[in-house]
Amino acid sequence: MFQERNRDMLHPSNGNEYFFDRDGRAFYYIMEYYRKGTVPYYDDCGQSMHHCNLVPRTQLEGELDFFQIPKPPVIEAPSITVTEEYAAQLLNNFIDMLKKVLREAHSQLYSRVSMTFVSKSFEDFAIAPGIESAIRLATPYAFSGYRILRNFPELSEHLKEDSSISDCYIQKGFRRVNSSLEVLDRLTLTIISPLNLEMEVIKEMSYLGRSVEGGN
Q1: What is the mean pLDDT of the segment spanning 36-54?
Q2: Per the CB 3.0–4.6 Å rule, which of 57, 69, 158, 176 could disulfide with 64?
Q3: Contact call for residues 116 and 124 (beta carbons, < 8 A)
């Protein structure tokens, strides 16, 4: 990097500070080399979301040449086991979110919750009823929810194994075009869970409410 051929590109300030007008994404690999002595570049990203390269290999090699760093050996992408573990964790977190949303619905005396997820669209995510606390819980899955429902259609059957859930189903989105139906890239998950509140308890609460009002 500091060889004679690069002298015209080196303009130190304050005596020993240098500014390099280079690609910021590729510079990540340069910094990793100086931190760890290796360049974490994968020959094949596989199916993992966490091990994809930021720049093409040819661009990286150009940056390595500029900074006079040896070209790295090919690093194999993580095995599918890592991907499966990540997918399992994502699915478990999604199910936990659904149960929390259902509890929020119960707290407002709703027994049905519907969530609509749209492929490649965050803005079109919808949840009914629109309870603010439930929306906050579900929003982190507004983008990934569609992929989860599409890849795990058996999720509804799994949820119905919970004794508190009486029914659960996934519906595809359709719209009518002339005389035919067109399938939309949207999936709606509906969960039905009875409140199971004893009528005597409701009557008692209602009686107490009237008593308080009468006392005022």
Answers
A1: 56
A2: 69
A3: yes
Which domains are delineated in the chain? 4-78 (3.30.710), 82-198 (no CATH)
CA dist 207 and 205 (Å) reads 5
Taking a C-beta distance cutoff of 8 angstroms, is the pair 168, 190 a contact?
A: yes
**b/e for 151-167, b at 16 or more Cβ within 10 A?**
ebeebbeebeeeeebee
Of 38-42, 139-143, 150-154, 195-199, the poorest mean pLDDT is in 195-199
Distance from C-alpha of 79 to C-alpha of 157, rounded to nearest angstrom? 29
φ/ψ of 11, rounded to 5, equals -130, 80
DSSP, collapsed to helix, strand or coil, labels residue 55 as coil
Could you tell me if 152 and 91 are in contact, meaning their C-beta atoms sit under 8 angstroms apart? yes
Question: Which pLDDT band holds residue 88 (cuts at 50, 70, 90)?
Answer: confident
Q: Tell me the two tokens of residue 115.
A: 């969530």
Residue 199 main-chain phi, psi, to 5 deg: -60, -30
- Structure tokens belonging to residue 184: 């939309």
Tell me the one-letter amino acid at 169.
Y
Q: How far apart are CA 157 and CA 152, in angstroms?
A: 10
